[in-house]
Amino acid sequence: MNTQFWIIQTFNGVSYGALLFLIGSGLSLIFGVMRIVNLAHGSYFLLGGYVALSVIEATGSWALSLPVAALTIAALGIAMERLFLRSEGFAFLRNAVLAAGLAVLVSLGISAASPQLLGGGWLQFMILAGVAAVLIFLLLSRISVLPIETDVLRQVLLTVGFAFLFQQGALDIWGGNNMDIQPPPAFTQSIVVGGIYLPLYRVFMIGMALVIGIVLWLVMEKTRMGAAVRATVDDAQMARGVGINTNLVSMFIFALGAFLAALGGVIGGAFLGIYPGLDFEMLPLAFAVVIIGGMGSLGGAAIGALAVGLADNFGKALFPEFSYFTLYAPMVLILAIKPTGLFGRE
Amino acid sequence: MVSQQVKIGMVIIGLALLAFVIPQSGSFVILLATRALAFAILAMSVDLLLGFTGLSSMGQAAYFGVGAYLTAVLATKFGIGMGWDFWLVVVMGILLGAALAAVFGLFAIRASGVYFLMITLALGQCVWGLAYRWNSVTGGDNGINMTGRPNFGIDLTNDVNFFYLVYAFFVVSLLLLYILVRSPFGKSLAGIRERELRMQILGYNTWLHKYIAFIIAGGFGGLAGVLWAQTNGHVSPENVVLTTSVDALLMVVLGGSGTLVGAAIGTGIVFGLREFLSTIVPWWQYVLGAVYVLTILYLPMGLMGIPAWIRQRRSQRKSEESKKLASKPS
Known about the structure:
The complex is a heterodimer. Chain A is an all-alpha fold. Chain A has 2 domains: 3-86 and 147-337, ABC transporter involved in vitamin B12 uptake, BtuC (Orthogonal Bundle); 88-146, no CATH class. Chain A has 14 helices and 2 strands; from the N terminus they run αααααααββααααααα. A two-stranded antiparallel sheet of chain A has the order 1-2. In chain A, a hairpin with a 2-residue loop joins β1 and β2 (196-199). Chain A is globular and about 70 Å long. By secondary structure, chain B is mainly alpha-helical. Chain B has a domain at 16-241. Chain B is 75% helix and 2% strand. The longest helix of chain B has 27 residues, at 206-232. The mean pLDDT of chain B is 89. The chains are: A mainly alpha, B mainly alpha. At the A-B interface, α4, α7, α12 and α14 of A face α5, α11 and α13 of B.
């Protein structure tokens, strides 16, 4: 336990915190703006990593995989937000998407249970799925859906449902193996500072999080959009009253959150690996970041991410048997003493 | 409106059918039903909090987990609980679940709404962290394998005997919880669910009411864990993980919260779907996800709410028709 140990562990903790900032800041903003507890946020992280793997496999370019993965997942986030989380005006499309998905499941189930019934032909399958889709659509459109904005429990369960769907989808597309994202060789070297080897990749992670954090801060504090976002966080009703399009703000924030989480997945995939189950491993950590920092606060997310990154790293190094306990117990204490988090606003 | 007596009669008939039909079927179904009944006790404890007190706990798997780990550790390390002392383990499991809830409740009960959800999530993760990492006690990621089931005159390694034992525990739990929610205490819980401030103004100590409900739910969670460990013969961090807590919540909402029986029905459906589908197709998790999405969007009152929903639509249509008739100029 010399100084070198402490320096290296601190460095590792800070770089892990940089990664956690990417996933946590989006979750925090989504909660702050939309009051939605999104349990599919870990899935964005995982899917971002998987999409990046496919991009790298197709083009060989790691640098390209970053924006492509992040934008793809941002689009997925927008679709989820518009169709399912706040579906006013999109009820028709939502019912259609659900009916199509269910019809495919039903047809797949029937053809798996009794293959001879369909004869294995594509045509029969399509006809069956089409008929089922129409029937299910007619049934679904007879039921009116209660909005879920005010009901946290239903948000939680709905987004968990999506997390399960994404998990299975990822398993079907990319398989169940543990995969690694290979960063460019330039990043695999180490730099030496005062006789201590620091992996360049982790330095890059810290730099990346810093840049993103500063850009986010500038956007939130200095632009008109940022002002609209802050107004919506503080009082959505009043913001609507003064003419801010809070629907647009919500969409923007949800897309941004998914974008950041996916970016985290690509960057983190290089040293965490990408594997089924990573989504629900990262999710509680992201929540720890949000809770410690305070929901809806960008600065809070930064502090929270740093705290969780350090606590996780030192916990694992110093008391391996209690490492997760030492991470979540402080989270409980903070919640019990100041439920809004260290930097949360009422 | 179906009267309360008829409802109780239907539940009793359903339970009797279960006791009669399940042991006649294959070992796969018997084990599945045993598992579902053990888990249903956990789901009903979630319902006590969610449906009757208005607290959505995201950490109920913690109590389930301590019950299960207690059973496994006692059995494998100390050889306790394989004979008559099984009943001792049951009592200890209930007490440990309740004691843990008594500690956790001190932190959690003060919070409300989304903060209660978050703090119970964090508390659940604390227990999960210990289960996952405290290798010397919990066996870490691999969990603990148990050998055989208790034998105290009645041989529980026989799946049918064991089914009847779990069934009996389930029925007693259902009965106790039913008595609880119908009692004056249960009525004041419902009052807290509807409007906590009003109950406070009326002079009720709402904190204490919620705290006691939380402890009772923890006790039932511990019991469910003990039975689960004996059912599966294997305990792992998987039993304490966040998704187990969320699963229990979904089962309650799917069946219909605030009904107790709904929680059991929801458990039966989710377990049935999961176990049957996973033997037929590899993509069963799509179905689970779809059940989540459909329940939340289209069935917020749960399956038990369907009769009321149909009645409401009928009466709506009738009143619309009579309005039309009335407004028609004659």
